[in-house]
TrEMBL record:
Keyword Membrane (UniProt): yes
Membrane topology qualifier: Multi-pass membrane protein
ABC3 transporter permease C-terminal domain boundaries: 246-366, 704-819
Subcellular location: Cell membrane
Classification via InterPro entries: ABC3_permease_C (IPR003838), MacB_PCD (IPR025857), Macrolide_Exporter_MacB (IPR050250)
Keyword Membrane: yes
Domain MacB-like periplasmic core: 480-671
Coarse class of the protein's main subcellular location: membrane
Keywords from the UniProt entry: Cell membrane, Membrane, Transmembrane, Transmembrane helix
Protein name per its UniProtKB record: ABC transporter permease
Source species, domain of life: Bacteria
Length: 830
């Protein structure tokens, strides 16, 4: 049978083109996604910049700290405490040392990532004075070039607020950061925390003196303190989150469509296989022949797919950079390392595996073909559902329904984590695709009911063709089902979750006004104090800090907000599991359920500045909605914010007391924030801005997740329709011989393709309804009743394109077939 399989491939190569294309694209998708994921595993190799001239650097670093788990800029307990005076003295006994500080300092109109340092730090980096001199008085600064010149007065925003300084000097541009330099005394006042210590002692002696209290950095390892190092890690974090989701969706799409295409290709050859059985081929020989064909086609397509993946991966990386979903430096570089050959090996093996697995069930059916079927000339499907298809379809449906129900009723917070929940959405779509032949007839009757009422031969042909060739209709509708089903399910779930988050924010924020940063990374202390001084208002400044508590044998870290306890209840409504946030005092804390403690318990809390205090738990918050993952402390601990973060408030909530005039407060807020790097807006307007920004971010992420899969689905729609239409040349010939004109024939085939698209769309709507019902039920558990929101405009565009491609896939082969005479087409053997 090996020779027969090879001869079949050589003679009937056109019949295998569709399968080859599907396998090649599937392997290419897997290879490209693997290469993208591999490219995220490494950061750009940069030489030390900020400490390029430092011989030895002692840094307070925590090797177990994972910045991806926290907001950008947060620090571990070791990092927050910095270099202690004791450690500095021990290292200083070995030779000269220079303390290094980094803190928030932004020139008015400067970039929001501008930082401040003591002037002594400039000698370790490629900073050079382009004009003027070093700062000598605490009222002097050295600024980057491009702004003020020596002798001019400038305003510098700091954590405490804007302050005026005299420019003593100007530094030449540095490409790794924009820094403002102060005297050492002024830097120590603005930032008591010492980030690192530059030591001039012998490296080994310094290491012995430091022990395990800090890390001693030399050579290229000094680059971990560069701004670009943390920026690279933070920038690649979103990419590393999105790519696995995209890979899951792409893998699901490619495997399903390849298997479906293989099964359809074997079904098209049913009479041919029956002829082999008639001349004496055994079922085992038939199965071996089909598997051999799949192996040869799979081998060629896997190699071609890997090559195509190598070519498209850099293009995909560039697309992600253009969308802002990856950092500018992100690219796929080809080498002999495992980041390249491992994804290619996986893609090759999966391509071969999908080819053999996809054809296995079809080969079993091929072996069961009876010789008498070679005498049949009708295209009526006598058995549309095999036992295996029933089994897998019902299993996928049951698993999908059970999983959706479990998530909705037991673990609703899972819907807020896309990396965990997107896989659940795949099963109803898969189930509807597998069980499609069961409902194709009733759906086709429903769609073609108007055609039956109107009468006419064309309508009757379209209707009966779909009803008699159920397997073909289901197979050609599958790519449309997948395309539209993924669009509605993923885009609808994302939009509905965004709407729920927006509703949760609206329910939580009861303030009347919100003060937000304006060209700065946060709201400074001066603004907060000015706002607090406005009569008739309650104010809560969301000042981020970090707290740490014992969790079994380890020290767990938690983000927290230092707030005014008296104003908390009037500005925010927190989702409480137990207790009352209004009971918050200087000696207590409000925690979330991640802490694993209850109301009334006392926990020993390690503050970011190194102090340790016992705090009593007065309330426990629910975190399942994903928006309440912080603890709340009294403003007594606001000073720790300079150690844990920049010391700037994320925003300031302002609530009006009874009898306070809103217009008066608005005017006072505008005065309090003018020229302070902040702005005051109505809470409703702020909520709208937040909702719009989050929706835009989500849409871009979904564009990446869906974009690659939908492009493949579009190609699969054309591929499958071309295969189905090319197999019906005798139908075309009969229509021509019966007197149908070419335009009439084209209209019939176009109408059939639109009917197939309609079947796929209705099945997609059914599968998506199951998915979105589960999302709505889960969100109802979290934030209350949430209407389902679907971007129907985007879905409509995708649906129209799918239908248009289906028509092209059917009409173009028919149009090309008109070049041959009808009698020649009628004599073509299947």
């Amino acid at each position: 049978m090996l020779s027969i399989a090879l001869q079949t491939l050589r003679v009937r190569w056109a019949a295998f083109v569709g399968t080859f294309v599907a396998l090649t694209l599937g392997a290419a998708m897997i290879a490209a996604m693997g290469l993208e994921i591999g490219a995220t595993l490494g950061l750009p190799e940069r030489a030390p910049q900020r400490f390029a001239a430092a011989p030895v650097v002692v840094a307070a670093l925590d090797p177990e700290w994972d910045p991806a788990r926290h907001d950008p800029g947060s620090r571990s307990l070791i990092q927050a405490r910095g270099i202690s005076e004791t450690l500095a003295a021990e290292v200083g006994a070995l030779g000269r040392t220079v303390p290094v500080r980094s803190f928030y300092a932004q020139l008015s109109g400067g970039p929001d990532d501008q930082v401040g340092h003591g002037w002594s730090s400039a000698e370790f980096a490629p900073y050079a004075l382009a004009a003027g001199r070093a700062p000598q008085a605490d009222s002097e600064v050295v600024v980057p070039s491009g702004g003020a010149g020596p002798g001019e007065r400038v305003t510098v925003f700091t954590t405490g607020g804007p302050q005026d300084y005299t420019v003593a000097g100007v530094t030449a541009p540095a490409d790794f950061e924009s820094a403002v330099f102060f005297t050492e005394a002024e830097a120590a006042r603005l930032s008591p925390r010492v980030e690192a210590l530059v030591a001039y002692g012998a490296p080994e002696a310094v290491r012995q003196a430091v022990g395990g209290d800090a890390e001693v950095l030399t050579g290229d390892r000094r680059n971990v303190l560069d701004p670009s190092y943390n920026a690279d890690r933070e920038a690649i974090d979103n990419t590393q989150t999105l790519l696995p989701i995209t890979a899951v969706v792409a893998g699901f799409v490619s495997i399903f469509l390849v298997a479906s295409t293989f099964a359809f290709a074997v079904a098209q050859r049913r009479r041919e296989i029956a002829l082999l059985r008639t001349v004496g081929a055994t079922p085992r020989q038939v199965r071996r022949m089909v598997l051999t064909e799949a192996f040869v086609v799979g081998l060629g397509s896997a190699v071609a797919g890997c090559a195509l993946g190598l070519g498209t991966a850099p293009l995909l990386a560039g697309w992600m950079v253009d969308l802002g979903l990856a950092p500018p430096w992100f690219t796929v570089e080809f080498s002999t390392g495992p980041a390249v050959w491992v994804p290619l090996l996986i893609a090759f093996c999966m391509g071969m595996g999908v080819a053999l697995a996809g054809v296995w069930a079809a080969s079993r059916r091929a072996g069961d073909v009876r010789p008498i079927e070679a005498l049949r000339d009708a295209a009526v499907d006598t058995r549309t559902m095999t036992s295996g298809r029933w089994l897998y379809g019902l299993m996928a449906l049951a698993f999908g329904l059970v999983t959706i129900g479990w998530v909705a009723l037991v673990n609703p917070g899972m819907v807020m984590v896309p990396t965990r929940y997107i896989g659940v959405l795949m099963f109803p779509i898969l189930a509807f695709a597998l069980l499609a032949p069961v409902v194709v007839k009733p759906i086709a009757r429903l769609i073609t009911w108007p055609l039956g009422r109107l009468g006419g031969a064309a309508g009757m042909l379209v209707r009966e063709s779909a009803l008699t060739a159920v397997r073909r209709t289901a197979a050609t509708a599958a790519p449309v089902l997948l395309t539209v089903g993924l669009s509605i399910s993923l885009l609808g779930a994302a939009a509905t979750i965004d709407r729920a988050k927006d509703s949760g924010r609206r329910n939580q924020v009861t303030a009347d006004f919100v003060v937000t940063p304006d060209g700065t990374p946060g709201v400074n202390e001066a603004v907060t104090e000015r706002v607090r001084a406005i009569p008739g208002v309650d104010v809560v400044a969301a000042l981020p800090t970090m707290v740490y508590a014992r969790d079994d044998a380890r020290l767990a870290d938690y983000e927290a907000l230092a707030v005014d306890p008296a104003a908390l209840s009037s500005t925010l409504t927190l989702p409480v599991d137990e207790g009352n946030p209004a009971d918050l005092r200087d000696d207590s804390i409000v925690v979330n359920d991640d802490w694993g403690v209850g109301v009334g318990e006392t926990v020993e809390v390690f503050m970011a500045d190194g102090s340790t205090v016992p705090l009593r738990v007065v309330a426990v918050l629910n975190t399942t909605s994903g928006s309440n993952d912080v603890a709340y402390l009294s403003t007594k601990y606001a000073g720790t914010a300079k150690y844990a973060f920049t010391g700037l408030a994320r925003r300031v909530y302002v609530s009006l007391r009874d009898g306070t005039d809103p217009a008066t407060v608005r005017a006072a807020l505008e005065s309090a924030t003018a020229g302070q790097g902040a702005r005051a807006i109505a809470a409703e307007d702020w909520l709208g801005e937040e909702s719009s920004e989050n929706s835009e971010t989500t849409s871009l992420g979904m564009l990446l997740v869906l974009g690659i899969a939908i492009v493949f689905c579009f190609i699969a729609i054309v591929n499958t329709l071309v295969m189905a239409t090319s197999d019906r040349l005798r139908d075309l010939a009969i229509l021509r011989l019966a007197g149908a004109t070419p335009p009439q024939v084209l209209r019939v085939f176009a109408a059939e393709s639109l009917l197939v698209a309609g079947v796929g769309v209705l099945l997609a709507v059914g599968a998506s309804a199951v998915n979105l019902a589960g999302v709505r039920l889960a969100l109802g558990q979290l934030v209350g009743a949430t209407p389902v929101s679907v971007p129907w405009g985007t879905v409509a565009v995708i649906t129209v394109i799918s239908a248009g491609l289906a028509v092209l896939g059917a009409v173009v082969p028919v149009r090309l077939a008109f070049r041959s005479r009808a009698v020649e087409l009628a004599g073509v053997r299947e």
